[in-house]
Amino acid sequence: MWNYEKRLQFPVNIKEPNAKLAQVIISQYGGPDGEMGASMRYLSQRYATPYREVAGLLTDIGTEELAHLEMVAAIVHQLTRNLSMEEIEKSGFAPYYIDHTVGIWPQAAGGIPFNACEFQSKGDIITDLHEDLAAEQKARSTYDNILRLIKEPDVCEPIKFLREREIVHFQRFGEALRLTQDKLDSKNFYSFNPGFDMCKDCDD
């Protein structure tokens, strides 16, 4: 069960609309390394995790990613509200506008829609945690790229906050991986599936 606190995790107060920025930032809503995929990844992976501490961590971070999804949506919304038709046409926002007006819809910066192939849930704790570590670094890189493109302080500050949280999540997943390795028998990754180490048809 979740308790929803009706405020953004970090304030978003953008004064000037800018559809060009919205088109790149929306990638962190529904792009390949965005917040929607991150939340679905962690909240799905937690069920196959054998250790309560790691399942709890996946739940915590997956929930926080929902808050980040809300922040990105607020950024895109504030960057696109009250646009004139002239601004929409000049900014290259017209193709999006045709399909969604200025509604928030999950897609990458290149226009590719979100789908479940954007995240992985393998059911093997070692595989999943390595996936999570890589995912946080890819999200951090995407925020780095966004920050290279924007200069407006009221847009930069929430993006910087989101980038910082990716770094914290990467560190926490590293801790979860070390905890998992300590719990696995003899720190052998394959001890999670010991049958793989046995050759039934071999003569010893």
List keywords for this structure.
204 residues; mainly alpha; 8 helices; 0% strand; elongated
Structure description:
The chain is mainly alpha-helical. The protein is built from 8 helices and no strands. Helix 1 packs antiparallel against helix 4, helix 3 packs antiparallel against helix 4 and helix 3 packs antiparallel against helix 7.
Compose a concise summary of this entry.
The chain has 204 residues and is an all-alpha fold.
Total number of beta strands: 0
Shape: elongated
Multimeric organization: single chain
Rounded mean pLDDT is 92
Helical segment tally? 8
Spans of at least 5 consecutive residues with low confidence: none
Structural class: mainly alpha
List the helices and strands and how they pair.
Elements: H1 19-25, H2 27-30, H3 35-45, H4 52-80, H5 85-91, H6 94-100, H7 125-149, H8 153-183
Helix pairs in contact: 1-4, 3-4, 3-7, 4-8, 7-8
